[in-house]
Amino acid sequence: MIDAAGKLIAKADRIVAFSGAGLSAESGIPTFRDSHAVSGALWTKYDPMTLASPEGFAADPQAVIAWYNWRRRTIAAAQPNPAHQALAAASRNSGLVNVTQNVDDLLHRAGAQHVIQLHGSIAVDRCHGQCGHYEAIDLANPPDLRPCVRCGEPMRPGVVWFGESLPADAWTAAERACSQCDVLLVVGTSAAVYPAAGLINYAKSHGSRIIIVNTQPSEASRLADFELIGPAGEIVPQLFDR
Ligand code: APR
After folding, report:
1. What is the CATH number of the domain that holds 129?
2. What is the pLDDT of residues 219-242, one digit of tens each?
3. 132 C-alpha to ligand 1 centroid (Å)
4. Cβ 25 under 6 angstroms from ligand 1
5. Which of 25, 53, 65, 217 is the most exposed, fewest CB within 10 Å of its CB?
6. Domains held by the chain: number
């Protein structure tokens, strides 16, 4: 199956890689819902509405920032894995577009081009008010809760929280890429969170072949032309190894 899927990728003109937390799992970054996760998936240990929603931030901003800073230090200590490396090389060599739900910077650190982050980036802070102020932050030494230098509202991680809209430019670019690709390579996502997960069926309805890499079946399994069960770090490099 890996060989047949690899041949499909080798023949394709336009490839989009749609990824989720499973892409970074082998780098030591916890996933959210993976029932197989050794150290436990985040949402089995923490309440997403308390830590990843505007309401949770309003109720206890210190706790939210402390939790994101713990995730930031974990990401700073992590390294891109062979799946990140393979997707980055394919983006440089054949224009593969990475559409990711991940807020970490591991694709960027692997040298990927054309990375569309649908759920924002944990490597920046933005003003929680309306002034639009953004600041890049040091993942290894993230700042504590502080006011925006422009308007005084609190700064918060530049990620999309539950109940918030996705960045319009990223969504438009992702839709365009998924409507034009020959192959959509779905890597390490439960495909449970919308609107992002809707891109898989959207690409299929525009004629794209669907290749899924996951350590277990997911909500997208029914859409797959090829479902490759196993770790992304082992399977993804083989798909491009032609
Ligand atoms: N290789 C491939 N797949 C893996 C690996 C691995 N090494 N490890 C875990 N997986 C798979 C799991 O089986 C699971 O299906 O990755 C998937 C991770 O799913 P989730 O934890 O639900 O993460 P994701 O799909 O990215 O979540 C979507 O939900 O919480 C929000 O905003 C957050 O972007 C996130 C969104």
Report:
1. 3.40.50.1220
2. 999 999 999 999 999 999 999 987
3. 30
4. yes
5. 217
6. 1
